[in-house]
């Protein structure tokens, strides 16, 4: 009883502290970012034609910006008419940290040799927009002047040739600029550009090393920095323990208030085991403080190496993607942490989010085949939940620590979600993606004390699993419910990384063949 009383008085002391500003928000990754719009032409056309090119290009850019779909501003730059002009444009776009991508369009014919020197120095993602100012051929009035001015069908083919010849990866979007699909495709690509920007500025904090003897989570971190730009380093768990000791009660209290506002907190945690909740929130604060102090946007821990931390962090890492926009993965798996951060950035502002996921259990019942994914603690509610997550405490069979506090929920149904894995296939990284439909579970799962999601993989469980195994893809994945396959395809193209996709059209036989061809392609193509 005395112990109970002491604990209660500690709670009251904590409650008397003032709540400080809420720092549990994700930084907007699109803030201040731009995509530059470069229109190709040449001097041959004369002043009047070039004036019309600039004016009509402005109309197109304004219309795209006005859709409200594209999360960054598209900025029209002066018409490109010469090799020197193209090079200056590309140098400037490459050097400006706020420019996350470049869109090009040739309103008129722009002889493509004038693009070579500029394209060779472009370091930003490129989108080739094959659009047109007019929607319909003006059947009764079209004359030679009109055709000379409006010839993107012609100019963009010359431009496409040089891009392909130079081996420059780009997204190609075809359609009239008022076509909603055009804005949607550009929007998805700008999200991939933001993911690439985040990847290139990412610092990953690893507390401890890899889980002992696990193969797929090992890998070449130096190569990862070359390919993805992400800097992945290890900090001693002792430093995290010191950061834990340094956390002020105010911050812990603020986090607990956030728990109470967002989750159904088990009354047991608020009463007899309040210290457990306090410890869990304090661990969250320590991790976040240490990451922020070091400019990190993704974190990785390992239950085998927790030093003097009282619990394996559960609720804290679960909140990394949902509250902070940070990537997280467990057991030393920096690859999935990188993907979760990229997924969180690409999906910013959309419904759903990104989370560490792990394939756990199959339902083989005919007609109800599905996969249950989970992790022992760390799956994030950012993917969307059927009901308000419950904050609970349960024993954990491994790790030899105090019972960890964790959010328990079931992922909300969602069509066209994806799980994405990164594996290290010796001389390169391979991304494998499965398009999945998240569904309701067939039963209560009431005895399962951790977060989970159920999904029907496309094209079906057997083919999906066979292809996943064939691809050597990881048991850890990043699940995204905000952005789907197109954003990850755009990202992989920008990064120049292999992406094997399992979708509704996949057959095991063709997938095996595709992997073999892809293997040859990536060994021959050493541009990246
Ligand atoms: Mn795991």
What would you note in describing this structure?
With 528 residues, the chain is α/β, with parallel strands linked by helices. 41% of the residues lie in helices and 20% in strands. It contains 17 helices and 19 strands. It has a six-stranded antiparallel barrel, surrounded by four helices. Strands 2-1-3-4-5 form a five-stranded parallel sheet, sandwiched between helices. The chain has a four-stranded parallel sheet with strand order 7-6-9-10, sandwiched between helices. Strand 11 and strand 12 form a beta hairpin. Helix 3 runs parallel beside helix 4, helix 7 crosses helix 16 and helix 9 packs across helix 12. The radius of gyration is 26 Å and the shape is elongated. It binds manganese (II) ion (MN). The site of manganese (II) ion (MN) has 5 residues, from loops.
Question: What is the strand and helix layout of this fold?
Answer:
Elements: H1 2-16, E1 34-40, H2 47-66, E2 73-76, H3 83-95, E3 99-106, H4 113-119, E4 126-130, H5 144-149, H6 152-166, E5 171-174, H7 180-200, E6 203-207, H8 221-228, E7 231-235, H9 237-246, H10 249-262, E8 264-265, H11 267-270, H12 274-293, E9 298-300, H13 315-324, E10 327-329, H14 334-346, E11 354-363, E12 370-374, E13 390-393, E14 405-408, E15 414-424, E16 429-439, E17 452-457, H15 461-471, E18 476-480, H16 485-495, E19 498-502, H17 508-524
Parallel strand pairs: 1-2, 1-3, 3-4, 4-5, 6-7, 6-9, 8-13, 9-10, 16-19
Antiparallel strand pairs: 11-12, 11-18, 12-17, 13-14, 15-16, 15-18, 16-17
Helix pairs in contact: 3-4, 4-6, 7-14, 7-16, 9-12, 10-12, 12-13, 15-17
Bound molecules: manganese (II) ion.
Manganese (II) ion (MN) is lined by residues 330-331, 358, 375, 476.
């Amino acid at each position: 009883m005395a112990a109970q009383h002491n604990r209660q008085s500690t709670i009251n002391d904590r409650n008397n502290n003032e709540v400080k500003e809420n720092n549990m928000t994700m930084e907007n990754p699109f803030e201040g970012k731009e995509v530059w719009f470069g229109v190709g032409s040449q001097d041959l056309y004369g002043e009047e034609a070039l004036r019309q090119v600039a004016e009509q290009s402005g109309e197109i850019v304004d219309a795209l910006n006005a859709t409200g779909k594209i999360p960054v501003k598209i900025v029209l730059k002066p018409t490109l008419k010469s090799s020197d002009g193209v090079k200056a444009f590309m140098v400037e776009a490459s050097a400006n940290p706020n420019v996350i991508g470049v869109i090009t369009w040739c309103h008129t014919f722009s002889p493509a040799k004038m693009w070579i020197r500029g394209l060779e120095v472009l370091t930003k993602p490129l989108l080739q927009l094959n659009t047109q100012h007019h929607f319909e051929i003006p059947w009764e009035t079209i004359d030679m002047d009109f055709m000379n001015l409006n010839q993107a069908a012609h100019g963009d083919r010359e431009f496409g040739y040089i891009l392909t010849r130079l081996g420059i990866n780009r997204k190609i979007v075809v359609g009239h600029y008022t076509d909603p699909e055009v804005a949607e495709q550009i929007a998805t690509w700008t999200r991939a550009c933001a993911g690439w920007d985040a990847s290139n500025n990412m610092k990953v904090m690893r507390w401890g090393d890899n889980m002992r003897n696990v193969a797929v989570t090992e890998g070449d971190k130096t190569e990862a920095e070359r390919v993805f730009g992400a800097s992945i380093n290890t900090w001693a768990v002792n430093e995290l323990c010191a950061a834990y000791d340094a956390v002020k009660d105010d911050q812990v209290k603020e986090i607990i208030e956030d728990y109470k506002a967002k989750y159904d907190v088990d009354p047991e945690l608020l009463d007899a085991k309040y210290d457990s909740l306090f410890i869990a929130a304090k661990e969250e604060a320590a991790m976040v403080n240490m990451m922020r102090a070091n400019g990190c946007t993704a974190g990785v821990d390992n239950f085998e190496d927790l030093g003097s931390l009282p619990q394996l962090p559960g609720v804290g890492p679960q909140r990394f993607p949902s509250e902070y926009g940070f990537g997280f993965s467990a057991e030393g798996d920096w690859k999935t942490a990188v993907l979760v951060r990229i997924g969180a950035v690409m999906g910013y502002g959309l419904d759903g989010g990104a989370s560490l996921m792990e394939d756990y259990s199959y339902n083989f019942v005919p007609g109800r085949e599905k996969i249950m994914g989970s992790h022992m603690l760390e799956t994030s509610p950012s993917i969307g939940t059927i009901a308000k997550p419950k904050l609970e405490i349960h024993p954990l069979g491994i790790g030899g620590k105090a019972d960890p506090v964790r959010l328990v929920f079931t992922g909300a149904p969602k069509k066209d979600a994806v799980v994405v894995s990164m594996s290290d296939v010796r001389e390169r990284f391979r991304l494998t993606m499965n398009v999945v439909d998240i569904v309701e579970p067939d039963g209560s799962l009431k005895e399962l004390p951790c977060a989970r999601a159920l999904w029907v993989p496309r094209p079906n469980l057997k083919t999906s699993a066979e292809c996943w195994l064939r691809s050597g893809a990881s048991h850890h994945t990043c699940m995204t419910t905000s952005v789907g396959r197109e954003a990850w395809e755009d990202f992989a193209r920008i990064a120049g990384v292999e992406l094997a996709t399992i979708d509704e059209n996949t057959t095991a036989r063709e997938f095996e063949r595709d992997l073999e061809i892809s293997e040859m392609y990536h060994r021959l193509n050493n541009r990246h």
